[in-house]
Amino acid sequence: MVGLSPEEKLDAKRHEADNSGDRKKLENIRFEGRKTAKERLLSLLDENTFVEIDAFVNHRSGENNLHLHRPLGDGVIAGHGMMEGRRVVCFSQDASVFEGSIGEMHAKKILKIFQFAEKSLLPVIAIWDGNGERPEEVMTSLGPSGQILDAMVACSGRIPMISIVMGKVTGISALAVGLSDFVIMHSTYGNMALTTEDNLSEFIAEKEIKEFSGNAANHFSRSGVACLIAEDDISALALASDLLSYFPDNMLSKPDVINNDDSWDRKCVEINDILPFNQEKPYDVKKIIEIISDNSTFLELFSGYAGNIVIGLARLDGNSVGIIANQPSVLAGCLDIDASVKAARFIRTCDCFNIPILTFIDVPGFLPGTVQEYGGIIKHGAKLLFAYSEATVPKLAVVIRKAYGGAYLAMSSKHLRSDYNISWPSGELAVMGSKGAVNIIHKKELSNSKNPNITFEKLLNDYQEKFGDPYVAAKNGWIDDVIEPEMTRKNLIRALRPLLSKREWSPPKKHDNIPL
User: Fold this and answer.
1) How many structural domains compose the chain?
2) pTM here?
3) Which of 229, 244, 259 is at the close of a domain?
4) 478 and 333, same structural domain?
5) Contact indicator for 427, 470 with CB cutoff of 8 Å
6) Contact at 8 Å (CB) between 217 and 187?
7) What is the pLDDT of residues 78-130, one digit of tens each?
8) Domain carrying residue 75
9) Rounded distance, CA 31 to CA 33, Å?
10) DSSP labels for 73-90?
């Protein structure tokens, strides 16, 4: 660059930084219809708002011939910009530079992003497309990588963190993804594993490692790491934008109110066509959620994992709400280990960011069996109860049908300081189902009866007449009202409006001790 003016040198450096990737790898990215690291950020952010930082950073290692190749940016594009008019902090790993692997300066750039986000209290959008630690740099990147994880823990609960997995992610990068609030994965190229065949073959049978596939489908349906799946780069970025729209910038603010043309007092008459007359017959609770929420605002999360409980975000009267609902069409809506953990994590996320929680209850109990008991259903079920009790945001609940025993108590019951609990006439709040209760209470009478079937039916009808409706619970103040299903939206919005200013005192302590 001898003989160039300062301005020409700057332009040359910028051009070098914008074109630092391996040509062959960039060609492959183009051929596959994917975007480059910088194009992803530019597509995510509003036009002409991206402010890049550390574009001229490069690695300092001279080991393993790395001194022969010092690309500017060191494999990650970082900065901040506007997304739908909101300021966000972001970075995107560049798989065309050292496979997007984390070296010392690469790690320091990402660390700077999280530190900047924590200081400015702005959300982070992290696009991961890197193959873990950079082995050529040996130990130099390990310290800064650990600092990334520490910074993410510091950010947790203070600012929303959304990770988008666009390619192969392993090692420390995978750990960082696990610390995020939400994970979106590319359905074709997204792949994530904490360990690989290369670094564990000496400890674990090679066959076991090869059998594991960290593809998006497995993390969406089996591990429960991914909350959303995207078909391509553009839809992944759009999902991140849509997801963030339900959240505030930080724990000190509230989500934006986004109104649409849906009337707040609209009657939900369609519910009557969905809810079966037979209490034992299944139905799809998602249809009820969509009817009660503002038009086209329900965004389901983790739909492929623990389908017996439904979680997601929606709007009521323009206000963001987190929704948890038992799903009677899967395992009859019973709570199991996966469902308990899935809902508990989501409740705590909503509570961190001042998002009211709305619960739809139709739960016959915790799933029985030795698999669940050996797996620790007692501990994991307690997580759900703990999360509801701990939450200080507005809590509203609707009893649709069954609300039995400990499972009912764990589902935002009035006894866990829920603010507004209502039931439909089909609601049944009890220690257990009618048949089980009759068998226990009248065991001796049934065993001595000459016609046990007739006696059982009579006793069952008597029990259901006394306890098979929501009015006993209403008499005891365990629910605030019994309403017609079509009036649910109107009643929930009426209750939510004053609760938006809710403040709840919590006793001072270092931190709670949720049964992890």
Assistant:
1) 3
2) 0.93
3) 244
4) yes
5) yes
6) yes
7) 999 999 999 999 999 999 998 888 999 999 999 999 999 999 999 999 999 98
8) 6-244
9) 5
10) TTTEEEEEEEETTEEEEE
